[in-house]
Amino acid sequence: MLLKKNNMRRPIIVGNWKMNNGPTEARAFFDKFIELKSEYEKNGKEIEVDWAIAAPYISMISLMDEDDAKYIPLAAQNVNENKSGAYTGEISIPMLQEFGVEYVIIGHSERREMYNETNASVNAKVLAVTKTLDSEDDDYIIPIVAFGETEAEFESDRTLEVIETQLKECLVGLNPEHMKEVVLAYEPIWAIGTGKTATPDQAQKVIKASREVIAEMYGDEIAKEVRIQYGGSMKPENVKDLMKQPDIDGGLVGGASLDPESFFQLLTYNK
Ligand code: PEP
Question: CB neighbours of 159 closer than 8 A, spacing ≥ 6?
């Protein structure tokens, strides 16, 4: 079944719309984004990164079209680890598979802070989602596991200690072949939606240390293959410098993904 997606750490940029862009706004985004993409492709260029949009569930349909040339890869912002049942307000993995969703963000700091998600609940979701990687069909889902320190932890120089615990507890018990496919997203909480970005050096330092934690858990070979994104006020003006860092393999992007032009600029940062 493997290799699924992860091709030599091909960069991956995912827009996280959070609770923004309802169905009508999502369709307006779609129309403009597809126009930009077709124009770009007419000039013989193409998007050279893996990418997706984590839209609200109800807006996903607005990003779909029968025309294959207008395909938008979808990500979910959360998922429940149970297959079905009495879980009011939740969405299951089979439901996302049926809808063709390719990625799911797990453990975003907003979910940890506002909806009591813990490293243990993140781990349960990651284990459930990675089971789809054994599917013979093309309906597997890649988890994007978010982690990062608070401002107080950053200020008291506890970042590395905090991220080590998060990674160890969130990723324990994974099949090593599955681990290779998991995408990690280092998101310092103080940089999310604040306009403050970690400097490329700061982000590189923590992401390199994260890779070392993966090496300790799963060995050097797997650690070298895992893709690790940076998230926290990434935008067209800073994407190039962040992406130049040797351990940064992409971005998880909130604010700058809401607008089709800035999101398209992010996806084509290397041009
Ligand atoms: C996010 O939501 O994961 C994020 C990084 O947001 P922003 O880009 O707005 O900081």
Answer: 149, 153, 188, 206
